[in-house]
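Lecture 7, part 2: worked example. A protein chain together with NAP.
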Amino acid sequence: MKAVGVHNSLPVTDPQALQDVDIPAPVASGRFLLVRVRAVSVNPVDTKIRLNAGSRLEQPRILGWDCAGVVEAVGEQCSLFKPGDEVYYAGDVTRAGCNCELHLIDERIVGRKPASLAFDDAAAMPLTTITAWEALFERLGIVRDRAANKGKSILIIGGAGGVGSIAIQLAKQLAGLHVIATASRPETEKWCMDMGADEVINHREALADEFKLIGCSNVNYILCLVGTAQHWHGMADVIAPQGGICLIVDTEANQPVNINLFKPKSVAISWEFMFTRARFQTPDMAEQGVLLNEAARLLDEGVLRHTRTEHYGQLTAANLLKAHAKLESGTMLGKLVLTVG
Ligand SMILES: NC(=O)c1ccc[n+]([C@@H]2O[C@H](COP(=O)([O-])OP(=O)(O)OC[C@H]3O[C@@H](n4cnc5c(N)ncnc54)[C@H](OP(=O)(O)O)[C@@H]3O)[C@@H](O)[C@H]2O)c1
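Predicted complex, written out as structure tokens:
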């Protein structure tokens, strides 16, 4: 089958950084579904793995962890899906990704595709939705109860990116929080407001100064999606006493952060890594399928909206490389997708 893979870790400017390849089609067994891929999205994790895949790989590393497609066959232990079902999912970073025609995926981390969305629009959603959902409702422990959250607020740093676009919606629509998002350009500021943010501040300025400008003293929660080290002191300034912060991005080795900054306010710091459940086969890994189904229902009911903004054409090495370049520019607004087949 056709796929796009990596043989050598190369910069995005090198046309060989991604290659069109022909690889054997996989076979469904156990709890794995064989899915005919119809559309994929691209995330920063794809570019990070491309740059760290190694050199002269005998077998190409297949990237891609955002998929919408149709179940073609099921393993003998599968019970949740059948051939013909339309599905969407992010997958498992320890396994081959979905930049291919036929893809194997553990059924426990698969959701039914939102019926109202085209495959292209559905493919934009799974990875970022899982990340934002787990961060808000599991790591930060925010309840999905608008009345219970009355008067509570959240700062979402990196509001217009893939994760931020759905995090704003979940925090506003499901939890009823007062949402302050960050953006640094007029178009990303507008997008954050369109997603449901109550206020937008500039992440290129000191957070405390920006809070003064909007007359806000602090927030109960912070979801930091970009620039953990860059915003470390700013987060310590604006988090409320006994508040919670969730991080999703590593600090660089040359950017040590001081955890003690958060002791005076007794701040709870948590991590979200959306591949944890699949990677460690946690007993509750099927929760990802459950949350994807719940998100599909909310998308179909119009409570949430898809975040696709761009289409990069058919899945080919050349088109996917353009998509990687866009992601690496750090200027993504919403999500981009490619069609497969
Ligand atoms: N732990 C996990 O499970 C997990 C899951 C998903 C993603 N991630 C990681 O989370 C990060 C964000 O992912 P994403 O998909 O949302 O990325 P993305 O779509 O590429 O994010 C782009 C956005 O980042 C904003 N931005 C750029 N520089 C910033 C800064 N210094 N401070 C705050 N915002 C800034 C930009 O806003 P402006 O253009 O307005 O500046 C842009 O809208 C990536 O590093 C990704 O690898 C982790």
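The pocket of NAP is lined by residues 43-45, 128, 131, 157-158, 160-164, 182-185, 188, 203, 225-227, 230, 248-249, 272-274, 327, 330-333 (CB under 6 Å). Residues 126-139 form the longest helix (14 residues). Keep this in mind for problem set question 3.
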